Amino acid sequence: MTDDRPRQLGRTPPMGWNSWNAFSCDVTEADIRTAADALVDTGLREAGYEYIVVDDCWMATETDSEGRLLPSADFPNGMAALADYVHERGLKFGLYTSAGTKTCQGYPASLGRERLHAEQFAEWGIDYLKYDNCGDHRGRDAIDRYAAMGDALESVDREIVYSICEWGENRPWKWGRNVGGHLWRATDDLVAKWRADPDEFGLGIADALDRMADIDAGAAHGPGGWNDPDMLQIGNGPQSGQSEHEPVDVQRPLTKAERRTHFAFWCLLAAPLMIGTDLTSLSRFDRELLTNERLLAIDQDPLGIQGTPDRRDSDAEVWSKRLADGGAAVAFHNRGDAERDISTHVSAVDVAGGTGRYRVCDCWTGNEWDTGGSLAMTADPRDTAIVRVTPC
Ligand code: GAL
């Protein structure tokens, strides 16, 4: 167990792009190069998105004779060359494997070969490892399996962000830091819809918010270690987030209001921001959403506090998050079917008191005004108004 390492990595929630939702098991080297270029061209790198992570299915079906992972034929130039390509664009490079005998799509994985694989990753120039929970666990519990890779990453001569993908099954917020993790999935896979039926695969945006409100995982969350409610589904259509083995009939992608709520809440939760869509077809609305500087400042606030609900009743929700400047981000979320006014007061959210006067900034419009304490916003159905409140 490695709970005493200096935590230089992940001081703010990691930001980047992951291949899974957009390319699933069909991902190729060309897709990754294109994504790296697109992250630069769209201005997303400039906004702070820096990791390009190749998810499942990059590896060949067989290892070498000593158990090393080999890239598949879809990565003809190998992972070191791809890491170089990503690094040359001022970005960082990540790979995926699993804490079992196989990945979720049945490729060779890392249980029992942690040191060997961590050495490979370091040699290739990897900066981020997503470590999944599929395959045979050989009777070993989650903490033991995730600690083995944490120790292996600690032993190599390269700084590698360790992203634990255990789906929140064994409350990884209790032990993720102690096994060297910089982020840990707190939820099942997120899919591009508002709500998932209970017997469907994955969680919708509203389901994930309910879960984040319920699990009380905020205590472990902060600089160096983050609860992860999964990749951003902004830009994704009905089938994204699914593998060919898990068909699901989703009626429609997220509306603009739902996408705004999704992004506002991931920032309010100080969640890792890993984009999950094909960047070559990003709409203007989605690009502007993902690069909203006021929201990104809330996500990346140095205090690193996870926002929590102050009020969840009658379809009106108020959530807030304390910020390093003594102010707070306050979200007004409408769960209902009709536009509604939602109000609260600075005394009911976590704002440093004393001055009696507060500056309010609407994170969507940039409009600013002063208040003596009352806060009232209007939100469309399933939409979220979000403001930054600062003591004057
Ligand atoms: C799931 C994981 C997804 C994705 C997928 C790949 O277990 O939660 O984010 O990595 O495996 O097969």
From TrEMBL:
Which terms under GO biological process does the entry name? Answer: carbohydrate metabolic process
Lineage of this protein's species? Archaea, Methanobacteriati, Methanobacteriota, Stenosarchaea group, Halobacteria
Q: Which family does it belong to?
A: Belongs to the glycosyl hydrolase 27 family.
Ordered alphabetically, the record's keywords are:
Glycosidase, Hydrolase, Signal
Q: Which Gene3D superfamilies match?
A: Aldolase class I, Golgi alpha-mannosidase II
Start and end residues of each stretch annotated as Disordered = 220-250
Task: Identify the residues that the record assigns to the Alpha galactosidase C-terminal domain, covering every copy.
Answer: 314-389
Descriptive protein name: Glycoside hydrolase family 27 protein
Among its keywords, does the record have Signal? yes
Determine the domain of life of the protein's source: Archaea
Q: Which GO terms describe its molecular function?
A: hydrolase activity, hydrolyzing O-glycosyl compounds
Coiled-coil ranges per UniProt: none
